[in-house]
## 1
Amino acid sequence: MHIVDGVLSTPVLVAGSAATLAGVSLGLRQLTLDRIPVAGMLSASFFVASLINVPLGPSSVHLLLNGMAGMLLGWAAFPAMLVGLILQAAFFGFGGLTVLGVNAFNLAAPGVIAWLIFAPLVRRASPKTAAIWGGLGSAFAVTLTTVFVAMSLALSGDSFIAAAKLVLLAHLPLVLIEGVLTGFAVLLARKVKPELFAALKGRQ
Amino acid sequence: MTGLGQAAGQTHFGIRAIDPRMRILAALAFGICVVSLTALWTVAMALGLALLMLVFSRQPVWQTLRRMAVMDGFIVFTLVLLPLTVPGPAALHILGLPASWAGLRMACEIILTANAVILALMTLVGSMDPVTLGHALHRLYLPDALVHLMMFTIRYVDVLRGEYLRLRSAMKVRGFRPGTNLHTYRSLGYLIGMILVRAIERSERILAAMKCRGFEGRIFLLQDFRLTPRDWIFTTIFMLALAVLLICDKAPL
């Protein structure tokens, strides 16, 4: 899902970086120092959880968890995703440098949109209904990320349109798996710790 | 191991002796410069420069190159179609479809660019202790909240990874074997939910401990950096190398 350096055209790179800059500054405004431990801890857990190999037939996939991150962190998903991507690129050699802005936007923006639509539903519903909304929110965020990645490619040149379509197709199974898995994650979280989804909402 | 929590030993040799701030700026300059290159051979030269730096960074060479190869495995996905979709004279036929020279060239250029930039980033920045990266970004005037968020993430990635591995071995002891079925997805979903719950609870304890110690909203970053003549020499040579790349790129060949 990460785009690497050298693929995207300059206008796409600049637009993505500008959008991420705006998102990060909005997110940082939410992060008072009281909330930094909780946000840092969540961002570390998404980092760890996205390394889990989820079996799929003969192969395996990694989760994006950007919908879950968005629904828990709100706008703070922008800085959290950016931090994750910086660490991945510098220490694991995954992703790229000039594309940091675009990649962060493609992950965080769908998360924030999922937060706006689905987080109130997850917070209010009973655990079982919340699980369904949570799963839908995650699937929605992954779908949107895939669309954004495909659009970043397609906008960078006509020669990438076929690749963009391939990206869309190849990520369909991930959408389903991510939806099911995070649905169960929300179910457990809502049962064990109902206030989880209010963690960054004016607690304490 | 994720390795993020380990402190890399202080060595004063090659790239590692250079001021972290300069290394971050150098990596950025390198990235922007290489992405703007258009000639295939200058991009190849940039990759050569990155490899040269790798040798002088005392990073484990094979491990770094293997990580790079893992990334290549993913981008092949985007590139494999290029020869088929870029119009131009056909170079060869794959499954009866014409593959153009222009497309092949573009795919090569992307592979070289992506590898050069990520390799330079891993050698210049990845050779730092992650905590040093946080401090250096702070000294480069990144917002406090972003740096603190990064420091927390770095600090607790390994802790949470340990927690994940403990939960995972507990599952294994109870006979869990992953496969493509709903049971696996449900169990892994619960696992992720549990990691998140524990993370939140840990963060509450941390905040309480911080407040208990008189935390008043400021985290002090103790590491200080000073630029030495060696840093300036490195930066000058590096910028000259980038300038040579850019000039060669514009020169007709």
Note: The beta strands of chain B are 90-94, 97-100.
## 2
Amino acid sequence: MSVQAQQGIATLRIPEGLGGLLPALILIGLFFVVPVLALLLRSVTDPAPGLQNYAALLGDGTYARVFFNTFLVAAVVTIVTVLVAFPVAWMLAIMPPALASILFGIIILSMWTNLLTRTYAWMVLLQRTGVINRALIGAGIIDQPLPLINNLTGVTIGMVYIMLPFMILPLVGTLRAIDPMTLRAAALCGASPLAAFRRILLPLSLPGIAAGGLMVFVMSLGYFVTPALLGGTSNMMLAEMIAQMIQSMLNWGLGSAAAFILLVVTMALYALQLRLVGSKRAVGGA
Amino acid sequence: MLLDYDRLGWLKVALLGFTALVAAFLLLPVVFIVLLSFGSSRWLAFPPPGWTLKWYQELFADPSWIEAALTSARIATMTAILAVAIALLASFALVRGQFRGREILRGLLLTPMVLPVVVFAIAIYAFFLQLGLGGTTIGFVIAHTVLALPFAIIPIATALEGFDKSIEDAAIVCGASPLQAKLRITLPSIRIGIFSAAIFSFLASWDEVVVAIFMASPTLQTLPVKIWSSLRSDLTPVIAAASSLLVALTLGLMIVTALLRRKLQT
């Protein structure tokens, strides 16, 4: 090996300055920022320059219903997810490690299982002649099958199922960081369990609940697959509408405008979440 | 007291009962789909009237399923390699670099994780239509790498933050070149982060549906697209068989991860 080549290897280094960011920035710049900006541009130029696409979206009752429905579903999903996740995270934070690792295993298995697989399972479970309806009829609880799919109930069940891990896992961290002494002190001072929960445990875990809840809400707003398969036509959500505008109606102008509205709302809520938890923790939790 | 497991009293029973219900809820679809795939009823009756392997036979007899799975595996592997390589370079800069706007750049690189996928999907679809990259493997890999990058950067950057740089400096003082020090000291130390990054970015591509639906062409479709289009036509048990294999794959990945973590940590 020549001296020059040796020197070349000796000075070869993994850059620690801006240089190392170049490949990532080129990828994100060229294949993320540029296409998204081009889409935004299209929303005000297609079919003709102007804001008519936005006017059409915001001025029409059908679209207004989709917007309302999107927020409604996201809100219902978030509330149910928080209510279900909190007791589980609470137990996970304090239960013996052996038991906790089993539960963590179940959560990771459900989270890592293919999204379509999980949704397919719910489609089969919830359909009119599905297992749940048959079991309920068999047990004599109901006479007629319940409408569990292609409506708000179906979307809520399917979405809560997907969102639960995203709420439980960060909440466990929040709850573990609370010093059990504070609650012992409350009990010693005569606080009832309810008072201790309401005045100590809940307020101390509120930052985690708010951050996780906001994340679930934001993720639900833009969700496509599960609402498309478990929801009905009467409660279509925004993401599905955007996909339809592009794929079936080939209305790029309207679709891009709707996409841009979704983008702005999502980013605004995301910025709010960053302020709540600080930039590092917000993204580190995933 | 509320955070003392052994002193919760009746509340513990109630909370544990609820937790057990949620665990059952989380397991239900996964277990159900596996049982269903062995059931003999074409109309997905449950409990099944009998047990059979015919849905698996149908699955393996259909070349379009096999081809879709191979396409997915190919794209996901390329995505994982590309995402980890780019994320590794980016993480050194993000964690150790001293330049203005570092936090903003970090935020920018993580944005694909928070932007609704459907927005990115139609944007990249339109973009690739113009470039002629729609429906191509390279197009899929690029789009999936954009989506996977945050999931690769987070574990690597976190591992790098936890690594004491003075060990690397010590190696250099002892005569190693900066590159040698990184390759032989730093990279092995953050291998758990790198390994997690590889798994997460592989899964990010392997499971990706929305971009894939737009990008897929009649000649190139990934496994999720194949499942998606089958789902839209009917709920055939063949999907249950394919799904069960995916569950088996997930379980395999989980076990490998757990074993490797244990091995790497000791």
Note: The longest helix of chain B spans residues 63-96.
